[in-house]
Amino acid sequence: MTSFYDLFTQQNWDRIKESIYDKSGNDVLTALSKSQRDLEDFKALVSPAAAPYLEQMAVQSQQLTQKRFGKTLQMYIPLYVSNECQNICTYCGFSLDNKIRRTTLTDRQLLKEVELIKEMGFEHVLIVAGEANKTVGVDYFKHAIELIRPHFSQISLEVQPLDQHEYKTLIAEGLDTVLVYQETYHQEDYKKHHPKGKKSNFQYRIETPDRLGRAGIRKMGLGVLIGLEDWRTDSFFTAMHLDYLERTYWQSKYSLSFPRLRPFSGGLDPKVEMNDRELVQLICAYRLFNEEVELSLSTREQEKFRDNVIKLGITTLSAGSKTNPGGYAAGKESLEQFEISDERSPAEITAMIRKQGYEVVWKDWEIGFTTSY
Fold first, then answer.
1. pLDDT, tens digit, for every residue of 58-115?
2. Contact 48/24 with Cβ under 8 angstroms?
3. How many of the other CB atoms lie within 10 Å of CB of 363?
4. pTM score
5. How far apart are CA 366 and CA 93, in angstroms?
């Protein structure tokens, strides 16, 4: 059975990186003049040569986004259910070798989090956990989805990669969306950052979206952790992965995220720094490459940046996020996965969105719409 991994192994990281940095201003202008853009155009749009054309990129990105999505922003919130993890990852606060108190939410604690999240108005929730199959595996997620399903119109998952039949089990329970970040497509560096645990299996992780597509997931999210490797090259592979998936699993919808490495206790300094202007360039490049894909921006980013960038291509926004299990009931503790930059409440975020003339969308999907459920 073929997968994206077969296509990926035909690529050479160094040659692709060189071709991105070799792009010229004329290549950028050619890409900007097109109505349909390919992967070579994407290379030009994320290249250093595109920096002087950022304003033109932003104008086109805003127009394309409003044409497809209108002046709307969909809201979601993460629900951290466990910080137990069997992996060692150099950049994550949940890493096995990080000496923190481990906890997994009980039914009572989970429902308390749901109660507090609902009070903030959210209909779309993202379940997040460390990767610990024995204690927080498919049975736990199946039960959690059953428990919270009556309270939300859309349930997403960001946990360890699963097998195809396991995804089918969770989809049947009401799972709508799965986010799985490759972290980096640089295979050698991937091994350095994931020396122990199931996550160290590069091929299993990169083939996860294929298993999701075969399982019939309605929507899946992709991305890399910006800071681990050259962001332009990693983003190109993300775009290539998206292009492959849309052609192969056309029934599914797709979203992209672009998290920048954030500090945590004892954490890793970024190998590659990406400034705000470069992140705007990437957001616009993704939109010019793909008009349909949803672009998500989390509370990792600072208030001022989020306020200024939402008009340029973003379609989905988190607010009021806590990154520790039980965080909405207990408040901030030393159990968080990473530090939050934008700590404004959902009410403050929605006021900011409306002030800019955009409509806040709390619900755009109903579990009952999913035919497999």
1. 999 999 999 999 999 999 999 999 999 988 888 888 888 888 889 999 999 999 999 9
2. no
3. 14
4. 0.94
5. 33
d(CA 116, CA 112): 6
**DSSP conformational letter for 270:** P
What is the C-alpha to C-alpha distance for residues 359 and 356, in angstroms, rounded to an integer? 9
Per-residue pLDDT of 184-220, as tens digits, reads 999 999 999 999 888 999 999 999 999 999 999 999 9
CA dihedral 236, 237, 241, 246 (to 10 degrees): 10
C-alpha separations of 35 from 30, 55, 127, 223, 289 in Å: 10, 18, 37, 24, 9
User: What percent helix, strand, coil does the chain show, rounded to 5?
Assistant: 45, 15, 40
Contacts of residues 323-326 at CB distance under 8 Å and 24 or more positions apart, as own/partner, are 323/78, 323/80, 323/93, 323/128, 324/80, 324/83, 325/80, 325/81, 325/82, 325/83, 325/103, 325/104, 325/105, 325/109, 326/80, 326/103, 326/105, 326/109, 326/112, 326/113
The pLDDT of residue 373 is 47
Distance separating alpha carbons of residues 82 and 363, to the nearest angstrom: 26
